[in-house]
Amino acid sequence: MMKTRYLVALAILTMLLSPGVGAAANFVIVNGDGPGEGLNDTTPATPVGGNTGTTLGAQRLIVLEAVADAWAQRVVSSVDIRILARFNPMGNCNVLGSTSPGTAYMNFPGAPVPNVFYHSAIADSITGTDQNPGNADFFITYNSDWDDPAQCTPPGFYYGLDGNEPAGAEDLFPVVLHEMGHGLGFASFVNSSTGVPYFGAPGIFDYYILDMTAGLHWTEMSNAQRAASATNDGNLAWDGPNVTAEVPTTFFAGAMDLEVTSPPGIAGTYGALGAGFGGAPPDEMSGEFELVNTGSATPSDACGPLVGFTPGRIAIMNRGNCEFGLKALNSENAGASAAVIANDRDGTVLVLMGAGVDGGAVTIPVVALGQNDGATIEAELPGVSGILRVNNRLGVHASGLALLYAPTTVAPGSSISHWDVTASPDLLMEPFTSVDVFDQLDLTPAQFKDVGHTVTGFTEIFADGFESNDTGAWSSTTP
Amino acid sequence: MRTTAQMSVCMSLCAAMILTVTTLALVTPASAADPLSESVGRSASMIALDERIAAGDLKYRDSRTGEVVVATHARIAMLRLELAPHFGWPVEADVATAADGTVRGESNGAMRDVHVARTNLDGTRARGCFRDLDAAIAFVVGLDEYQKEHADDQADTAVAE
Question: A198 to chain B, minimum CA–CA distance in Å?
Fold first, then answer.
């Protein structure tokens, strides 16, 4: 499957047009490997998936640089962000790689929040000076055994930049993208099992962890309280203002209401369900409903281009004959503000709708309605107006805050430093990587802003193709 | 900041220490804490895993050979030995305060977020990011998949008919 890679045109444009926005950070990949090994491995390699390297070491380095480039589009700093990178044999075929935060700083001049530790790159950015001159801000290490057929069964790592890894291969790009996210600031400084801060005080990440049951942030808790809080599944949230502002436009709806306000004869609230694709619906959107017409023998199935649809209205259509994603896409192409798909069976059952082939291109909200309710509303069309209202969002606490991953320990746990696995759509900084999430930064720049980074515009644009070093924002060096 | 040479020496020594302590931990009573893991005492992940090992019904793919094997205490012990050096190394952080009040903390390699992969029984692949050794082991042997197979609460997602 062809997967999208980041395209940064709008982000760059936003940066260029926005007065007062600083320069993109200069990421420096510090090659920590010795001659002939790791990033310097001279084993010949065939260029693959947009990676032009002709040796194994070169291809590895190009992937790291490409990921650094992706982050450089969003992170602004006048101080170089230095990442010490290595590929080492790790003696197993399970570990892909790891990130370690290196150095952290507290109560430095200009620190926005006292008595919490900041990741090195954030402290550097805030102060405008390198707190630890010439040294790495964080460390990343990857397992070179993956490329050794004597150790691990091929095909090993995939170094292409296009997401087209062969079956069984491990695409390195999304792994590095996630891990650099941790290194830049998406990480707690507390041992989530004991509640003990590693540096003796919590970090800025912990400052924004809010236990909804206790009503306390992790920085306000004892070690024992934090340890208990770490497994308060579904009740541990992030209350940073920038992430919270992004919640309505990021997370898909779960339960929804379709409230008919007119005509009076069918006025009332009908249960609905957000789809697992399309655009995140706003908390409320009102409008006039219009039954779709494709001009075909089954005109209300929206399986073909719509005929005579009034742009701006909420399209209502019936399930059947084609995928939900195609129905929604045809509606969007006709100018619909949202697509409501009524079930064609099972009375009151609401279907959790998946994207299928075309759903990834849909940007309008998509909503499922039961068969009976759909028939009631369609019988009154035209002339039905109402409101689509979100009752909850997937991965979001009822308070409107994004949830963090706090599994009960029976489930294989991860760390607190991830979004909850119930998030929909899937997010880069969830603990378990999805094939759908490997090249997007989604909510992470907002989280970076919460913890003190300066970041550029929040609008994401993704498209096919990789643009190497398009801002000159990365470089590599050997210590 | 340590130099590369210093770090290499430390890594070797600490890895040796980890292997020693981890080996001891394997025969330690269930209530004892493993200081090198974020898991305190006998984690629920390991208890759940022990139950499945005892039942003899937890199968996973060996990461080296790709063969489907049954989880046993011996295999889990070997897996622990392989993975342990990547978690919680070393334990202590260095903290110092400068004259201007800036407090500097050196993690010395702790707080690692470790990306782990496995091949599922159906041949598909899965990845997870962990700070907790026990959780990583449970993931590698597919304990979450086992639980999923035995749960009745999976949502049914449809794309078409």
Answer: 6
pTM for the whole structure? 0.82
Are the Cβ atoms of B66 and A153 closer than 8 angstroms? yes
* Nearest-by-CA chain B residue for A354: B159
Q: Please tell me the least confidently modeled range out of A164-173, A364-373, A443-452, A454-463.
A: A454-463
Going from the N-terminus, what domains does chain A have, and what CATH number goes with each? 5-185+451-477 (no CATH), 252-390 (3.50.30.30)
The residues spanned by each domain of chain B are 4-149
Residue A104 to chain B, least CA–CA distance (Å): 5
Question: Cα Rg for chain B, rounded, in angstroms?
Answer: 19
> Which residues, numbered 55 to 114 in chain B, qualify as contacts with chain A under a Cβ-Cβ cut-off of 8 Å?
63-66, 79, 82-83, 85-86, 93, 95, 100-107, 109-114
Question: Each residue of A322-368: pLDDT tens digit?
Answer: 999 999 999 999 999 999 999 998 888 888 888 888 988 999 999 99
Q: Which residues of B touch A198 (CB under 8 A)?
A: 93, 105, 107, 110-111
